[in-house]
Batch of 2 targets.
Target 1
Amino acid sequence: MYAHEKKLTGWYLIVGMTALFIGGSLGPIQKLGHAGINWYSSLAKIGLASYYQGLTIHAVMNALIWTTFFIVGFFTYVIPHSLKMNLTHPKINTTSFVMMLVGLIMAAVPILMNLATVLYTFYPPMKANSFFYIGLVLVVVGSWVGGLGFYLTYGEWRKQNPGVRTPFLALGALITMVMWQIATLGVATELLWLVIPWSFGWVEGVDVQLARTFFWFTGHPLVYFWLLPAYLSWYGMMPKQAGGKLFSEPLARLVFWLFLALSVPVGLHHQYLDPGVPAGWKVVHAVLTYSLFLPSMLTAFNVIASLELGGRARGGTGLLGWIRTLPWGDPSYTAQNLAMILFAFGGIGGLTNASYNLNLVVHNTTWVPGHFHLTVGSGVTLTFFGIAYWLVPKLTGKQLFSPKLALAQAWTWFVGMLLMSNGLHILGLNFGVPRRVMLGVAAYRVDTWQPQVIESLIGGLILGVSGLLFYTVMLGTVFNKKALVDDGEPMPVAEPLEPEPAPVWLDTWRPWLVITVLLILIAYGPLLFDMIANLNMTAPGFRVW
Ligand code: HEM
Ligand SMILES: [Cu+2]
């Protein structure tokens, strides 16, 4: 059973991890560039034209491709196993993978040919080769098709199980996909309506402000699309790995519904400094952004309480003694717990970014990459590594290669990221050092930056080693001679502490979807109406590289 699902998940993971390998390799090279050690003239010989081409590859492969492929692949495994039934339309899910792969290739070729060095935000009026944009659309639409396969499977399950609560893991995954589906309407509109016709030269100009607004309509919920699968594992799997139970399952469901409702109508917090957006709407989005603090804190409380149950069940006592008895020898658990700690720092910094006035201080400084390497670069990526440490053995039927090496991977990522992100945060906050610059050759570079430049370089190099350890463990597992002993459990599933089923309103889609759409209409409706009524398709395209 589940042979098709496993194979498909395996393919998603192979593509995602390959993308991360290519993108991740450039990370330490960028750090060297910041410190004045310039590898780019040597890299030119193998076709890398500039720091910016490298930065585009780094962020597109890591933040867009690795995440999306891993997530859709993970859900292809989790949803059927959670519902305890096969995908009902396996061909649809296979089509999803093929579309995403074709899209990836279509976008990657222009990037590698230096025809799309527009960074992963591709803000117009920078203009890339059309196939870059078409490829990205295909990746997104391919993920929608995957979602469709999941919904059809869920519909069939619902028919066979009327009145039964949707299992938590399936519900969380489905909510994440629906949120993604709604959120990506923004970037799909941006590309299909504004950018692609303009990049082909069918229309003269593009409305830069409207394009950015559509982009961030998707751009913020994108971070929750990355994060919710990690939350799903923290809530629904890690307590089991720790020997505990999910402290409050209804609360966990509520959190997913809240993220569905609140992820989208907050995008303007990325546009506080955009001159074409009225201040009033920025304030509305700022307030809504702070409302995300609620589900975030509920998560911290619920997940830590669940882990505490595990630590105590394993013999831990005292106020904090249970922390010591958590399964720190298990790389899957440890990677995810360390990811959580890094993510907590990222979340705290995020409060600064989200503040309308404090944002001015850190906007477009190195503080920002300092922040998101803690969130997507660690909270998400290190959690996905932790998941891979149990999932890849299940997929291949092989034992995890060298759990010790995997543990070393988790800890080196933790230490490396603390150093790199600390350095980047301080440089941005104290000195206003700009992001997206090869600082080593900047004319305005000063010696007072040096301590943090070195600190973050050391962090970046440790991260590079950590990345190599990850790939060693993955390849070692795939080629491991030792077969996995089947324990009959396809994935860790945390039991709820309270046996009663969650209330029906936490398993009902309609009211939550209505709230979601209403909030989006309130937060974006008048603004978009105004921008479209005053459409300004005037900016010509530029090739600045
Ligand atoms: C080996 C580990 C890594 C290192 C050393 C590293 C280093 C860097 C550096 C130095 C920058 C450029 C900062 C600038 O010039 O503004 C950067 C940008 C970025 N990184 Fe990483 N990174 C790593 C892993 C990751 C991962 C795992 C992700 C996401 C999953 C990620 C996502 C990004 C993104 C989205 C950018 C922004 C690019 C832009 O501004 O257009 N990085 N990284
Ligand atoms: Cu955001």
Target 2
Amino acid sequence: MVDLMGLDRDASIDDLRRRAKRRIPRFAFDLVDGGAENERNLRRNRDAFQEVELTPCYMVDVSRIDTQATLFGQTFAAPFGMAPIGMLNAFWPEADLTLAKLCKAQNIPYVASSAASTTLETLAEAADGNGWFQLYVSSDADVTEGLIARAEAAGYTTLMVTADVPAAGKRDRDIRNQLSVPFRFTPDVVMQCMANPYWALLNLRHGTPNVANYADLLKSATSYADVQKTLITPGFTWEDLKRLRARWKGKLLVKGILHPKDAATCADLGCDGIVVSNHGGRQVAFGPATIEALPAIADAVAGRTTLILDSGIRRGADILRAKARGADFALAGRAFAFGMGAGGQAGGERAFEILHLELIRALGQIGVPSFNDVGPSQLSTVP
Ligand SMILES: Cc1cc2nc3c(=O)[nH]c(=O)nc-3n(C[C@H](O)[C@H](O)[C@H](O)COP(=O)(O)O)c2cc1C
């Protein structure tokens, strides 16, 4: 594809973020960019990665680098996929569908959010065998069962249940922006749209996004708080997870685990994988960064379940840091979102390319030609 936008001058995911910020109204940019309260965890996720050193080793033949990773019997081209992001079309129109297709084209996993702005059926078709479905367990058992049955019928074989939303995250930026879903066209929102006419035009063409999987349920919703009520899971307990394990015949992953005790219980209950995640710093501002939480979790599960890490991944080397500390795979959320915001499909592709090329380069630099061989011996100080 001809790079008319000059995206190849964007060297990093941070560059894509800066470009996205210039093209998107503040209220929509903040919806994705923001974190909980004073955003301490948002920053901490990234800072903690910086503290994990890998020591390069030389005189190893790295002329062929292999980034493939096999997970649940499926071999992916790279050891990272797209994390579930709700309401992403509010950030950039058609982002869900574009990223689902991109993940298929690049052969990496795409996780469709319960709260996506495109239906799970449409995303399953677009991701075509590379799609996983993320579930919020509703307080209404019929709603949960309805989503599970739809996910099954759509052909998903991997279900990722999110555990870390017992209460809605408090995101100060959204409160300041008086964010509502669907958007309310207040004078401030109109001004912001006028300052970003291309974004506004695309939105007019594609229509105001909403949480597509709950379309029927939310006909009566009048505020973002109403929408959130359906997505938060205050009553979700280990008993529910046991039932879910019995109900779902495919691979079951639990997302949002930070405590080694919880990780061990997930493994005891027969979960196929854990996503060590703090929701990208969107839930609490006082918890650990995921790369900090990871070693104790890896010890606690001792290989009994697959470990996936997300939150704060902005560099290919972050994925190596996670592997060296015990993760099998990684997910990136905002990195892909910023790519979409920077340049639509071409920007999403650029985000993948940046992470993948950085990963390949870093593997060469540490003298490990195959991603699968990265382990604790690459760490400067073994934790
Ligand atoms: C705008 C936004 C919406 C999100 N929506 C969901 C969601 O619907 N379900 C979920 O399990 N996680 C959700 N997450 C969390 C991501 O799946 C992932 O954990 C997080 O983005 C990883 O951090 P990163 O963005 O720094 O890569 C969301 C994150 C963002 C930024």
